[in-house]
Amino acid sequence: MPVAIITGASKGLGRALAEALAARGWDLVLDARTAEVLKETAAVVAGYGTRVTALPGDVTDPAHRSELVAAARKLGGVDLLVNNASALGVEPLARLEELPLDGLRRALEVNVVAALGLVQEALPLLRASGAGTVIAVSSDAAAEAYETWGGYGASKAALDHLAAVLGEEEPRLRVWAVDPGDMATDLYAAAVPDDEDPRPEPASVVPAFLRLLDERPVSGRYGAPSLVEGR
What we know:
Layout: E1 3-6, H1 12-23, E2 27-32, H2 35-46, E3 52-56, H3 62-75, E4 80-83, H4 101-128, E5 133-137, H5 150-169, E6 174-179, H6 186-191, H7 206-215, E7 220-223, H8 224-228
Parallel strand pairs: 1-2, 1-4, 2-3, 4-5, 5-6, 6-7
């Protein structure tokens, strides 16, 4: 069975993607910071009959990243790495003039540095796979200028660029930066707590990720809404 590592997998998009892959027979290594929530998610995902290893921890910890890749190796390797774990840096979001620099550092550490660290750790196994794939979960804030989204958007823009360069450097892999679009997630609620407009559930964009895995287009940046709509 193919093996995937998914970070930030206890809820939201990470959990929805984990369930979808498990339903397709993937074995999974799941990461999140909150142990109890991750344990509950892993139990649900394991109900699909695949092997699931749940490892709570912080992706900024090199030892934890090594632990994730070691767990995948025990399951057979790494065919897919989904860098989904994200940090806003400050909650709620703030204008750049008020953005705490420590918050910006946290966003960069989680969204960029840790993501690259996990890629580096998993790269030998990804290269050994017949279909090694890296997905960097991006944001429209990486490409558009929204007030108060400067720090988070800058971190996601950096992640996009790392993904683009990795795709050039590793032509045998598929490396996709995927903008999932607006979703009803805890991350968004923490970013803009006063926004009560309804947003799509994360499961609604999972078909976009599955389409990428099925069709395996060239490495690049993709928008989930367009993929779901068939464009």
